[in-house]
User: Which sequence fits this backbone?
């Protein structure tokens, strides 16, 4: 593991690290914020999964999360959204290939060699973090934005018992029913019959989540039709899932929206992590 | 004036606008955050002047200032740091030409046609803002980062009575005595005998500031030797200038540092603006 940068930040440390990833077969970069409390022992962890086109950096510099994580004594992990590099396949479209890993393991060429973001975020990176930093991996929660909201919701439900709470900002809620989802699943997984159960609405209809859920989406989200919020809302209400779905008046899909509600999300997770 | 974007943000609106600048003879872009209170009438204004290489955007997305400005009901202005465009002269170095206006009016070719950032920030932009937005121009304060801290301090002192309070993050304090200053003043103004009184330490030795001053600089600032904090500290102490100079342990020059102390700065200005 290589330290790319470490900056003092809200009494703690915002680091950026890279490492050779076995899952993605390339170097991967991630951001990690450690609050001051990490000097005295392991702290709980909140994952932030980012959206299409993002690297580890966008949320790290734009979401204003460190302020609230420092207040709560919680670490923040900012993974990248895909494998990267000259050897890694890409596509001209912003929503396929590099920057668009969709938090799934591809099985179709040319993506199947590197695009293993599920394994990377669910297995490889947690192990690396637990082995190298003062993190209490028994206390984890997860959030994300857009494609990263899809990632957060599907991981929270599929990895039963891993996360104490899940939240999302403008998540892609029903990818098998949206152009943000069908296109990528077809490319990474091929025929629809082979698609994995990586759809938050379908997982909510099935197993649900054993903990609280918080969803914020703007009423003026320019990608609102692609998100399918109504499907997740229906599924949550139907199974009486513990949670809040909030439609925030006049907010859009930007990081200005994410930053505006970050305090609420970190406080929501802190309650679950310190319960 | 053209609206480039408007995003809901912390209950208010983060806008980006461009206009043909008379002072700079090119189109100029600025960011303006209006808190919710602006819907009911004019609100006080806090200027944020940015540092070398920055546009209007860096502080707007990285400093986390909107959160605290919304809490205090204060507008934020984020001007660009120089004229821009294919017709505007530039230099290969990051610290001269576009992105490095230094908040002064150039008199030397090739800079003298466009590089009029003093006039732009001190005269043209305030007039445009006052004419077009619900801003109470009788209640203004100013802050900035690095080169923008130099701009904030020199404007606060030179424009007597304009600003109720001034603060700065890692400001260039004594540019006539630093490679961040001498190089640019020589290029924009020519012979040293012609240099204007745009040096915070010299202005502090002279007129000082009629109001409170807050300076934050990191003890691990990688550009610490270029900032000359000791000269401003000496000048402030000598004239018994009302103010705080804080050396923040282990912080560097980055926006992680700026964001970490933004709450303090906005609260400091709010106290002066609502006095």
Assistant:
């Amino acid at each position: 593991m290589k330290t790319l940068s470490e900056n003092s930040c809200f009494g703690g440390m915002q680091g950026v690290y890279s490492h050779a990833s076995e899952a993605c077969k390339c170097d991967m970069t991630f951001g990690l914020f450690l609050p001051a409390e990490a000097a005295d022992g392991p702290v709980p962890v909140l994952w932030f999964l980012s959206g299409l086109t993002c690297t580890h950096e966008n949320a790290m510099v734009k979401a204003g999360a460190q302020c609230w994580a420092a207040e709560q004594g919680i670490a923040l992990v900012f993974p990248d959204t895909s494998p990267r590099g000259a050897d890694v396949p890409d596509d001209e479209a912003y929503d396929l290939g590099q920057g668009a890993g969709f938090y799934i393991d591809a099985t179709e060429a040319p993506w199947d060699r590197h695009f293993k973001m599920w394994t990377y975020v669910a297995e490889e990176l947690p192990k690396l973090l637990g082995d190298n930093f003062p993190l209490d991996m028994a206390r984890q929660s997860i959030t994300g934005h857009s494609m990263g909201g899809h990632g957060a919701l599907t991981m929270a439900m599929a990895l039963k018992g891993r996360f104490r709470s899940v939240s999302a900002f403008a998540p892609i809620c029903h990818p098998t029913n949206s152009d943000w989802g069908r296109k990528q699943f077809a490319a990474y997984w091929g025929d629809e019959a082979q698609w994995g159960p990586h759809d938050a609405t379908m997982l909510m209809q099935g197993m649900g989540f054993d903990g609280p859920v918080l969803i914020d989406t703007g009423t003026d989200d320019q990608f609102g039709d692609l998100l399918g919020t109504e499907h997740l809302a229906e599924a949550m209400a139907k199974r009486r899932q513990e949670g809040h779905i909030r439609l925030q008046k006049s907010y859009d899909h930007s990081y200005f929206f994410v930053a505006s509600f970050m305090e609420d999300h970190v406080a929501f997770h802190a309650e679950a992590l310190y319960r």
Remarks:
- The mean pLDDT of chain B is 97.
- The two ends of chain B are 33 Å apart (CA to CA).
- Residues 255-273 of chain B form the longest helix (19 residues).
- The CA atoms of residues 4 and 17 of chain B lie 5 Å apart.
